[in-house]
Prior knowledge:
Layout: H1 13-16, H2 27-30, H3 43-46, H4 50-65
Amino acid sequence: xxxxxxxxxxxxxxxxxxxxxxxxxxxxxxxxxxxxxxxxxxxxxxxxxxxxxxxxxxxxxxxxxxxxxxxxxxxx
Length: 76
């Protein structure tokens, strides 16, 4: 019987870039957490902690209100 494949941890983009505070005005960083359709990527994809994911989501929503980032595109 084969051994189960080892799961690799996702790379935390905030720690990789040395970000301590997520700012809604930093659209270059926030775009890395938004899909091409405008949806916020899930934690299992981004590798963020729950607190970091909540901060990123809040920053993305604020940036959308200020028209810096697009809202999700409806398919159909």
